[in-house]
Amino acid sequence: MNTAINKELLFTHFDGRTTPLQIELLREWLQTAENQQVYYGWLQEWEHQNPQVFTDPDQAYSLFLHKLDASPQSVSTRQVPILKRWHVRSFLAAASVAIFLLAVMYLTQPYWSMRTIATDYGEVRSVVLDDGSRVTLNANSKLQIPRFHLRTSSRDVFLQGEAEFAIVHTISHDPFKVHTANDVEVIVLGTEFTVNTRRNNTRVVLNRGKVKVRYPTPNQINTLTMKPGDWVTLTPNERPKRGRQSIDQTTGANWKNYQYTFRNTPLPEIAALISDNFGVTVQLDEALTKRSVTGTFHAQNADELIQALIELFEFDVIRQGKIIKLVLSDSTKTLN
Amino acid sequence: MKPTEPGPSATDANQELDAEYFIRLAFETDPKRGCELLFRAYYRDLCSTAIRFVYSRQAAEDIVGEVFLLFWNNQVYQTITISYRAYLFRAVRNRALNYIKFDLNRSASLDLLPDDSEPDTTVQQPDQILQVDELLRRINEIVRTLPLQAQRVFIMSRFDGRSHAEIAQELQINHKTVESHITRALSSLRHLLRQELCLLLPGLLYALVS
């Protein structure tokens, strides 16, 4: 045993008067369990000589016995469960917070996992996707693109409104899928086509290449394949309307250049287009609903388009905020 | 004061075991009797050591009571390999330290030192022991830096367990003054100890991990 450590030194230590060097000695000395026992023994002796407080052991002991009776052999088993229960509780709390966060993330997934590109009324915008494909959004349209390419085997986008797609063919032949509101899917490898999904209809016009359109029917999911120049209009619970037009006449996406081409297009359809693209409601006179229009017009906004129509039809325009009423002018009426 | 059993003095472990020979013997035949002997032998000294940390007579007595309760309920006396008094003093000191930490940081309990609720009879890290001593020394220093009157009030209140009214009457001061003295003493203790513990904690953690 280290002779440098004796009771005097330890008492000095308990008095708080040891030097750092002596403390270092003590540290060495305290390495063994035996010396630690001696340390606590001397500590007791020192405490006995320097009492801080005068207690009554008899009274304390009877109190102790009383406590023992109150908690027969169970304090320890009570103590540990409290700790454990606390752990369990904190674990539960952490778990429920985690579940809550997961639920919130799951519910809000469309918001954080998708990049949304939206255009205003009368605005046309072009975006280039990560794979080099270009999408031109017509006015009042919304395109959602996944932020994370987890499933790299397919490129999925979600469209509301109207857009022209010029899709690049990838080396790995990844299909590009446009999902529309009424569960129609347009699947392509690499082509140019226009999708219009407004008013619950989906209209696909193909300029080049080949696309596959999957659409739900009450019983099953149907697939149809389109060739260049084809157009398809899909309305839920109705047979698809198909047609062809020569490619040079394609009216698919003239709106890109603010051009509107009509070919025997009924006026109500044009009114719907104005309302979709420019956010202006057009109300037609009864007599005007049967008229149709052919021609190409250049218009940046609703007023320009209506101005062009006025030149054709000579009707009066009544504006009420966002509502435009088109009425046959009196002179025309008398002519009729 | 009437002397309880003479504090067994020891110069080495063997002799210490001898000092506790009768208590050990009592535990073998009648644990309850052994416990009583142990209680009477060390209760006052244990309270004395605890109060150096917690500065409250009530808290000190509670701590010692809890240690004995655990000692009895977990039947530590059956598994213990070191002397009873080494175990008890160690347990009281650890518990007192945990109490301080809890007191300083009421929101989170820091069970950094084993509570000795399970009889951990292995060798303790020497650093752990010395850091507890160091903390004790700091507490004393902090109390010593208090103004004389505040010290007096504080000690009367904490050690002698007297009420504010009694202290006010004895020292011929205002009741409010007593309160403010105690509040200030406690807050400066808390404040300085918190700094102290921040420095101590990494060391303690290290000692526990290694």
Describe this structure in words.
The complex is a heterodimer of chains A (336) and B (210). With 336 residues, chain A is an alpha+beta fold. Helix content of chain A is 35%, strand content 31%. Chain A has helices at residues 7-14, 20-29, 33-49, 57-70, 75-107, 109-112, 267-278, 302-313, 330-335; strands at 114-118, 125-128, 134-137, 142-146, 155-166, 176-180, 185-188, 192-197, 202-208, 211-216, 221-226, 230-234, 241-244, 259-266, 281-284, 292-298, 315-320, 323-328. In chain A, a hairpin with an 8-residue loop joins strand 4 (142-146) and strand 5 (155-166). Chain B is mainly α and 210 residues long. In chain B, helix 9 packs across helix 10. Chains A and B meet through helix 1, helix 2, helix 3, helix 4 and helix 5 of A and helix 3, helix 4, helix 6 and helix 7 of B.
DSSP summary: helix tally of chain B: 10
Structural class of chain B: mainly alpha
Question: What's the N-to-C terminus distance of chain A?
Answer: 128 Å
pLDDT averaged over residues of chain B: 74
Counting helices, strands and paired strands, the structural category of chain A is: alpha+beta
**Separation of termini of chain B?**
45 Å
Strand residues, percent of chain B? under 5%
Oligomer: heterodimer
SS elements, strand count of chain A? 18
The helix content of chain A, as a percent range, equals 25-40%
Could you spell the SSE succession of chain A in H and E letters?
Answer: HHHHHHEEEEEEEEEEEEEEHEEHEEH
Shape type of chain A:
elongated
Main beta sheet strand tally, sense and closure of chain B? none
Compute the average pLDDT of chain A.
79
